[in-house]
Specification:
heterodimer, A: 404 residues, alpha+beta, Dna Ligase, domain 1, 3 domains, 5-stranded mixed β-sheet, 39% helix, B: alpha+beta, DNA Polymerase III, Chain A, domain 2, 26 strands, elongated, EC 2.7.7.7 (chain A), DNA/RNA_pol_sf (chain A)
Amino acid sequence: MNKTVLHLDLDTFYVSVERLIDSKLQDRPLLVGGISDRGVVAACSYETRSYGIHSGMPMKMAKELCPEATVIKGNAGTYSKYSDMVTEIIKEKVPVFEKSSIDEFYADLSGMDKFFGCYSYASELRKTVIEETGLPISFGLSINKVVSKVATNEAKPNNQMKIDYGHEKPFLAPLSIKKIPMIGDKTYQTLRNLGLKKVKTIQDMPVDMMRGVLGVNGVTIWKRANGIDNTPVIPFSERKSISTERTFDKDTIDVVRLKSILVAMTENLAYQLRRGNKLTACIAVKIRYSDFNTYTRQLKIPYTSADHILIPKILDLFRTLYNKRLLVRLIGIRFSHLVGGNYQINLFEDTEEALNLYNALDTIRNRYGDRSVIRASAMGAKTIGRMHNPFNGQPPVVLAHRKQ
Amino acid sequence: MKFIVSSSYLLKQLQILGGVINNSNTLPILDNFLFELSPGKLNVSASDLETTMSAVLDVDTDSDGSIAVPARLLLDTLKTFPEQPLTFVVEDNNTIEISSNHGKYALAYADGAEFPKAVELSDPSSTSMIGDVLATAIGKTIFATGNDDLRPVMSGVFFQFSQEGLTFVSTDAHKLVKYQRNDLEASQVAEFIMPKKPLNLLKGILAGSETEVTIEYNESNAKFSFENTELICRLIDGKYPNYEAVIPKENPNKLSIDRTQFLNSVRRVSIFSNKTTHQIRLKIAGAELNISAEDIDYSNKAEERLSCDYQGDDMQIGFNSRFLTEMLNNLNSDEVSLEMSLPNRAGILMPVDGLDEGEQITMLVMPVMLNN
C-alpha cells in the first residue's frame, strides 16, 4: 500500500505571529531576530526577501539592505504558545503526526483516502488552522516526507500542493538541486562544481557516482532526488540531550564572568533534569573563540542530577578547555546520555540539610519559575534560563534557520 | 633437581594458587609458579606483587633448588592427566622435563631468583578464627564494596578487631554492610582495609572449612595461614570513612516482612523499572507495602501489594532495586526488618532470625530522591 504523508509548514511563522499581535505590521517589511550587532535574522517577511534578505543572515547586513524594515526582537514564549495552538488542532484531526520543529509538522494520512480523500481532508485541515489561529500555513501532500516537504516549499506562501502517486520524479526533476533537503551551501557548491544544477541530472546519474563524491550522504541525496524516502512519521521525540549556549555581544576574556555564566547554565539545566526526573551521565563544555575555532570537551560521569556534583565538574572541564588566552565568542554546556531516574543519595557526601535545601529550591522554582532562586555566583548571567520543560516530547525551540 | 608427585594432588594445589595470577602481567615472571624444592617438600608460590600465596606440598625428592615454571602451560597439561605419579626433572638446557605414563613434556623455566620475594611481616599482631567463619564474614560484606578508582578505600573490606569482637564493614557510598562477631576476639585493637582480590580467593578456599585460620597483620600487610597454605597481601592504604556516623540512630518507621516474598516482589517489579537506574518506589501505609516501578521510555509499569507488619507514619521512599535484591539475596533469614526515618535518609535492613550466636548484620541502603 502506498503511504500518504502530509507536510505542514507555517509561513514566516515568527513574522505571522508578530503581525497577528500588532496588525500595524501588516504588509510592511519586517525582520525578527537578534537586535544586537551579533544578532541574526530568525525570520523575515516576504516583502524583505526582494532585498536579498534571508533567515540566518546577520541582522546588521539585513538592516543595511533594507533600512526601512521594522526589526523585532521576538519572544520564544509567545511563538511556542501559538505553535501549541496549531499543534492542538492538528492533533485532533490526524491519526499520527510528528512535530519536527516549532512551525513544521508531518502527518501520516495513509489509509484515509478511502473515507475522506486525503487531499480534501488536508485542505480542510489547513482551512481550519487558518480560521482558528489566523496564521498562514502551507502544505504538501505526497507519498513520503521528503517529497511533501519539497512540495510545501514550492507551494509557499500560504498555499497547498499535491504530488500524485508516480509523479514524484517528474515533479522534482526541473527543480534546482538546492531544493532537496540536506543540500546546504557546502554540498551545493560541491555539486555545482561537478556541473549539477537541476535535480534531473542527479536522477540520471548512477548512484555509485554520488557515493564516490559524497559518501553515504551522496546515496541519501540520490534517493531523495529520486523521490525515495522511507523515514516514518515519528509521533514522539525523546530528548537525547539538553544543552544551552550563549554568544556574547562582545567577545570577552573575563573568566569570572564566563564561570558565572557556566554556573548559571549548569544550575538551570540540572533543574530541568530534576524536573523531568532525568539523570545525566555525560557532560560537555563548548567554547568558540573569536577566531571562530570551536572546541568541546566532554566527560563521562556516574548518573547524577545534583548541582554540587555537576557544577565543579563543568568548571573543571572549562579550566582544561580554556587554554588559549583568546577572546571568547561563545560558551555553552550540554548534558547527554539521559535516563529517567532520580538522584541516588550518597552516604558520606550528602547531608540531610543540603538535600532539604535542594528540595526547597526546586519547590520554589516549580512555583515561581526557574529563575526565581539562583546561586549568587550565577547572578551575573541575567538571561540564562528557558521557560519550557524540555522533556514534554516536543522538539526543542530552535530558531527557524538553525540546524538541529 | 628432581621430584615425583601425584598429578591430581599437584593440580588441586596449583589451581588454588593460580587464582592469584593475573591474566596480563607487566612483569613476565609473574606468569610463573615459583617451585622451591627442599628434601621431601615442594613450596609453590604465585604472586601478582600485591598478593602472594604459597602452599607446601609433600613430594618424593632429596634434592633442592628453585625455579619458575610457566603457570598456564603447566595447568593446561595437568588438567588432562588422569591420576598418576609424575616425575619432574630439571635439565641443564633450562628446561624442565615431565614424564608421565603417556610420554614426556619439556617446559622452559626461568631462574627462581628472578621471582619477586614475598614480604616479611615485621612486628605483627594476630588473631585466629575458624575458616568458615571468615569465609562467611567475607561473603556477607564483599558484595557491597565499591569499584571507584578514585576512592580506593571503598574497594576493600574494613576489618576492625578488638577485645570485644570482630567487625567487618564494606560500602560503596550507596549501600553499607556491617557484619559483627561478638563471640570472637583479637589480641589487640586493630583496623585495616583488605583488598577484594585476596578476600575472594580466601572465600573460595575456606567456605565450609573447619580449619583454624591465623591472621597476622601490621600497618601495611596481612598474612592468612591455614593448613599448608599461606596468603600474604598488601593492605589498602588510607582512612576508612567514618561509617558509624552515617548510620541513623532514630528510626521510628519499622517494617517487618517475609524475606523471600519481599525479594521476589522486588525482583519482579524491577523488571519493569528503568534499565539503567533500576529505580523502584515503596509506599507503606497501614499494614500494606506497595512496590511499584515505571519505565517511561517504554511505557512499562508494575505494581505489587504485600501485607506486612508496619509501625510508623505512612511514607514513600525510592530505592535502586539492585541494591535491595543484592542485600536481600545475601541474607538467609526468613524474615527481615527495614527501619526508616525519612525518605531522604538511609534505610536499615536487618535479619530478624537465622543468625548464629554472637553474629550481627546491619545493612544500610541509601534511597533515591523522589519528586513528589
